[in-house]
Amino acid sequence: MTESKTKTKIMNDVVQCVTERSELIKYIVPTEVPDGRVFFKVITWNVAGLRGLEKKLPNALEDLCRQQEADMICIQEHKLQEKHVEAFKARILPDFHQYWSCSQTKKGYSGVAIFLRKSSTIQPTLVTYGIPGNSVSLDEGRTITVEFPQFCITNTYTPNSGSKLERLAYRTDTWDPDFLHFHQELQATTNKPVVWCGDLNVAHQVLDVYNEGAPHLKTQSGVTAKERANFTSQLACGFVDAFRHLYPFASGHYSYWSQISRARVPNKGLRLDYYVCSEDMVLSPGDVELTKSTVLMDSYMIHEQLGSDHCPVVALFCVQQE
């Protein structure tokens, strides 16, 4: 017993090497923002339990929205049941419209919510919950889709494959195809570009993992070859990873750190939180003017925000007013 305690203490006292975070050098910078457009800023954040976040940092969401001047915030894993929602509605983000989806299958599990600033010039025409034909998306409270006049956005909490990959087959063979099909249909039926954001539970590329090449990653949820290949296939269907499109060579920019291994301070993380956009929303190096109805302008992590094992991720869009 004494020996074990000593080893634990020694391990805890070891100073880990820090994974450096590179400077963000934007690949594409538009030269002009035409009149008749407004900026629309979105934040996505897996809060890992809204009760816990409120207990640790009572004003975290309000402060975050104020500091970032956000129009919309999408949270995942709030872990509330429907009977708890009204109480939270009454005390958080009163200047925002609120849309909630809760898990019906398990208490203290999953759940997503969207908060949209009432004063924003961009307001929704339709809000839908879940993915048609996929019961898990609604039963576990995993998606909310908001349709605006100019584009659609889905707040997403993708199922984790599990510590023993017990849900890997469902995630890769059912969820991923259903999710992609839903957004392809949404894009086609609305004739609008689409965005899905949130905790997608995949670290896609070499630069999205601090210890790429480690043997155990082959069987680690979110980093398996199948999960990565599925994400590659989704992007190949006309979609773009917003952050990686803007910053293709950025390293050390993660959105999740294990609390068990105290990984945040040394920046031993994974990038699991994304904005995925229709190709029609992004600029190419030859674009000098903003001619599309909705254009991705920037995306970045707020690494310094505490309160969860994930950090918030921001996307800034330039939107044509009606």
Which key features would you list for this structure?
322 residues; alpha+beta; six-stranded mixed sheet; 24% strand
Could you explain the architecture of this structure?
β7, α6 and β8 form a beta-alpha-beta unit. The longest helix has 23 residues. This protein is an alpha+beta fold and 322 residues long. The protein is built from 8 helices and 14 strands. The strands form 3 sheets. A 6-stranded mixed β-sheet has the order 3-4-2-1-14-13. Strands 5-6-7-8-12-9 form a 6-stranded mixed β-sheet. Strands 10-11 form a two-stranded antiparallel ribbon. The protein is globular and about 50 Å long. α6 runs parallel beside α7.
Helix-strand blueprint:
Elements: H1 2-13, E1 37-46, H2 50-56, H3 60-68, E2 72-76, H4 82-91, E3 96-101, E4 112-117, E5 126-129, H5 135-139, E6 143-147, E7 152-157, H6 168-190, E8 194-199, H7 225-235, E9 239-241, H8 242-246, E10 256-257, E11 269-270, E12 273-278, E13 294-301, E14 313-320
Helix pairs in contact: 6-7
Short description:
This protein is an alpha+beta fold and 322 residues long.
